[in-house]
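Pilot study result, target chain (89 residues):
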Amino acid sequence: MQLSAIKADVTEIETAALVVNLYHGVQKPAGATGAVDAALDGQISELIADGEITGKPGEITIVHTNGPSAGPTGRRGGSGGRRRTVTSR
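Predicted structure:
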């Protein structure tokens, strides 16, 4: 597996998997996660509303897109609280 970090429009990247974050308690995703949510016609927002995505630390949700933009599979990781975000371990 090859990992890369690039500066680009997250909805224009062609990739097998895309990882975005969500802070705990956020009900409407913004930033890169919001852009991916819009590209997926609100699929992430629906999962948040259903309680399937909470943003709790360590939470990982795999969202199968079945073809729409933002890569064939989106992975969304819980970031915990805004002040407790860990960028590396």
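One observation from the pilot: The first strand starts at residue 17 and ends at 22. A full batch analysis is planned for the follow-on phase.
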